[in-house]
């Protein structure tokens, strides 16, 4: 019980800090320079640039409408973390502009890249804790209910439309749209690095005479399955076993240290793999990746 409480406190603390970074990227870099971005926050900023209606007002209104539609169409698909993130982000959008500091960098390109980078870091932290700021995530789930399409494609089209709409605001030009696309690219790159970096997998081959000890400790200490294949060293003609282990990239350092502790002369080959499906990794159902289920987990 205590561990669960501590884990929840840690998770919500990280999400809160991530939300702060996300909103700060808008209030300090993007909004003061009237740079558009993607998602509901980007749409809310476009509304402010066009009408003067404050971002925090549009942000909460749009998200409430999308949540209502989501509940009607999808049913139970939204957990407390999503509600928490939407409400706290709205509060930050109202409070942070009261802080006098904003970027004093004159170059809008640099501001767009910095804003997109910080925004990606903040959202990445939130996603890793199972949170979500709603918005286009909900749209992706609704579209996914009726059509076989990935959330990434929905996000892309939504962001292209939102940022492109800046062109129709009086006083704005094509260059303002381009700055928005720079923000979108930097945001997408950073969040991909954070999310896929946590899920990237590697396959290692271990050649060692102490393969039994290595296999036992790999399963007990790292929690990954090990496959042993019969092998013959052609130079020595000695019979042995080659261990095949597939694990997350973040576990690679732990695995190599374990091998070297047992056999400092062991030979290790490491290969990056594109995708891994099965227990402990991604899942495929009916021959297709279950994108909808994964997206719903992010909104829990």
Question: What attributes characterize this protein structure?
Answer:
single chain; 300 residues; alpha+beta; Alpha-Beta Plaits; two-stranded antiparallel sheet; 11 helices; 60% helix; elongated; disordered C terminus
Q: Can you describe what's shown?
A:
- With 300 residues, the protein is of the alpha+beta class.
- Strand 5 and strand 6 form a beta hairpin.
- The protein is elongated and about 80 Å long.
- It has a four-stranded antiparallel β-sheet with strand order 2-3-1-4, with helices on one face.
- It starts with a helix and ends with a helix.
- The chain contains eleven helices and six strands.
- Helix content is 60%, strand content 12%.
- The longest helix has 29 residues, at 2-30.
- The chain folds into two domains: 2-198, no CATH class; 200-273, Alpha-Beta Plaits (2-Layer Sandwich).
Write the layout of secondary structure elements.
Elements: H1 2-30, H2 39-51, H3 55-74, H4 80-95, H5 108-128, H6 136-146, H7 151-164, H8 174-199, E1 201-207, H9 211-222, E2 226-233, E3 238-248, H10 252-262, E4 267-273, E5 284-285, E6 288-289, H11 291-298
Antiparallel strand pairs: 1-3, 1-4, 2-3, 5-6
Helix pairs in contact: 1-4, 1-5, 2-3, 2-7, 3-4, 3-6, 5-8, 6-7, 6-11, 7-8, 9-10
